[in-house]
Design goal:
The chain is mainly alpha-helical. Helices cover 77% and strands 0% of the residues.
Amino acid sequence: MFLAAMAPLYRLLLINTPPNNQSRVTIYAVSTLLSCSAIHIYLDNITVHGFIFAVMVLSAVLLAIRIVKSKNAGTDASTQASGAGKLEKYEIISRLTGAGAGLFVLAYFFWLIDVGFCRQLDNLRRQVGLPWGLLLELHGWWHVLSGIAAYMVLVVVDLTSDKEDCSCGEDNRNKHWEVTKGQYSWPVGPMICQLQQSK
């Protein structure tokens, strides 16, 4: 869980970090990851584990929002008036960030329910039987949803850390910002394509 949260957080921290300071960020990230793991192993407390994970995810989401807002604030007035280029892309990135954050929250909620009511859910799954009992496998849904959310955050990082600033003319800007079908896996690729078509 800590690694799933630290991967996007680490990538986000590197976006505006000068190359000569990136090794410090790496040392900070690895130290934080190892410290949190050691605390979890030493205390063997699921509540502390969940709290640390939630702080890491919240930090990644807030940092992603801040980066998206700062890049969107740099959009010039002509691009905003035309409704093309950066502004459209950062609207899509904002929605993708929100969807990823929402999935993390839902996954975390499922995990908390599973931790608190594991025995009851296990009994209920046995009563319901297969295949419907799988819907009550909240720990499994936690893994699926948090994996999808982590992927969404990494796509947001990929899109926001793009080095090209898209100010090199209308044709290049639109070509650069167009996400093609198949460029990103489900659910991100279809979601981005649908948002682009709705503009």
